[in-house]
Amino acid sequence: MTLHFEAGQGATEIRGWIYDDDAPTPSGRPIEEFQLPGRSGTFEPRSIVASRTYSVTVNVVWSFLVTHGEETQLFRVRLEP
């Protein structure tokens, strides 16, 4: 599976965390983290297992002139065999 991200103009970085909803880690930490420079890119998770549901949190860092900020999105993903 490949996750492809494309953010809007002004995006400077895309960060993300993948959590296994069906088998969470004892610490509650993500099973994978990723960071992509710029406004687009792809990431191939190595820990995704078929027939499980995952939460993917994506944080886009943006900058425009003298203003900057972050936007966070949450996606649910289920990989079927």
Largest sheet: 4 strands, antiparallel
End-to-end distance: 11 Å
Structural class: mainly beta
Helix content: under 10%
Count the E strands.
Answer: 6
Strand content: over 45%
Mind telling me the C-alpha Rg?
14 Å
Mean pLDDT value = 93
**Number of helical elements:** 0
**Which spans of ≥5 residues are poorly predicted at pLDDT below 50?**
none
- Note the run of SSEs as H and E: EEEEEE
Broad shape: elongated
Strand order of the largest sheet: 3-2-5-6
Provide a quick synopsis of the model.
By secondary structure, the chain is mostly beta strands.
Please specify the SSE layout and strand pairing:
Blueprint: E1 3-6, E2 11-20, E3 32-37, E4 40-43, E5 53-64, E6 67-78
Antiparallel strand pairs: 1-4, 2-3, 2-5, 5-6
Structure description:
By secondary structure, this protein is mainly β. It has one domain (3-78). It contains no helices and six strands. Strands 3-2-5-6 form a four-stranded antiparallel beta sheet, with no helix packed on it. The chain has a two-stranded antiparallel ribbon with strand order 1-4. The radius of gyration is 14 Å and the shape is elongated. The model has no long low-confidence stretch (mean pLDDT 93).
Kindly list the characteristics that best describe this protein.
elongated; two-stranded antiparallel sheet; 59% strand; 81 residues; mainly beta
